[in-house]
Amino acid sequence: MPIPILTVSQMRDWEKATWAAGRSEADVISRVGYIVAQRAKQMTRPGDLIVVLAGKGHNGDDARQASRNFSDREVYLINVTEPEVSVKEFISQLQLEPALILDGLFGVGLNRPLAGEWTKLVDKINSARVPILSIDVPSGLDADIGEAQGTAIRATVTLTLGAPKRGLLAATAWAHVGRLELAADIGLVPRTLASDLQWTVREDFLDYPPARPVAGHKGTFGHVTLFAGSVGYHGAAVLAARAALRAHPGLVTMFTCEEVYIAVAAQLQAAMVHPWRPGRDLPESATTVLFGPGLASSHVLAEMKDHLARLWKESPLPVVVDASGLDWLPQGPVKSGALRVITPHFGEAARLLNSKAGLVQNDRVRAVRDLSQLYGDCWVVLKGYQTLVGRSSGEIYVNSSGNPLLAQGGSGDALAGYLSGLLAQPGLQSETLTALRYAVWQHGASADHLSSRQRNWIVEDLIDTLGNVPE
Predict the structure, then answer these.
(1) Could you write out the DSSP letters of every residue in 422-451?
(2) With CB atoms 3.0 to 4.6 Å apart as the test, which of 48, 205, 232, 448 could cross-link to 44 if both were Cys?
């Protein structure tokens, strides 16, 4: 199940409930130490030096416990009580070229700016150019609001404990948090705390998509129809169609601008490709429509834009809109009960909201709510680091997979095509949210899978991997 994203106060309540149930802090610290050590081993190799920085509080206890779980690495533990002394000790260890710094200086309880000597230590750690694994929260970062208390560690990976803290998701925190990972099972009692923000995890998709009926045929699994591709941008249409095919709908049909029809059709074998002309109807068997990838050319016909507006307002079919199509959307209600999805990145979201990109990033949850309300209570996939999936009310889901190599042209086209291919399938339409979350997670997980094996992968490789990352 998804993990609720909590405030520091909620996390404290959860810990108190655990102690009241008879579980000891020592047992939890022991488990955390083991989990942290295992993650540190994944970031290093046998024989590497790991410098452990442990503060006075429980975060330091976690770090000290972790330092006892390395049998095949060299470990140097610095118990930091006087930062002006510890910075000299730390500098001496840097001469030995450590492979990892384990940050256990401060936890979620920090509520005041760091004093001068602490600032010097943190700045020296950040300038060391050594990978950093932070325990629970980067030291110096306010875990509720996501702002540095004067300064804060810039972690490579933050392994947060029990549940993600709300501040770790703030745009102001991202440079400090690095890759946010979760150690969920640290020995606390089963949680009962609610949150409007939920953290998506791999285990949410066990046995998804469900097994197909053995007597199924092409008509059983839906027909996704794409409107994509224009002069100078025909590649987006090809990428979206190929990604849609990876979701295994029964059929894929592409309508593309006549000027690029040959270029698009020549690159697609399993999809049916047609030049788009005004007045052309959707295939009778269509079950979902994707509109937008690669329609950025000024030569895109006004009739095509009008066609999208009519589909969005009136069609009973699910309609997904991405890229340039977003700028042509009419505001207001849509056909009652009709499924609508938009997939903007933060810049596109800002245009739709008549706002600024920075304001969207500063309150992405509000952006999701406002966009959904403006466009007929549609589902919103707000793309970017920790992609959000939600609508005007209800829970919003934060994606946990993906990495910066997704920031390349065509990545968004692949996501739009893949999620449309899932939504085209009648058997998956009844659980729209699950399909959307799975598409986003699989997209990011595919990037993580590729990045663990090679540094130079491209979007075509991503599409080849979509749907093949095990849950």
Answers:
(1) HHTSHHHHTTHHHHHHHHHHHHHHHHHHHH
(2) 48
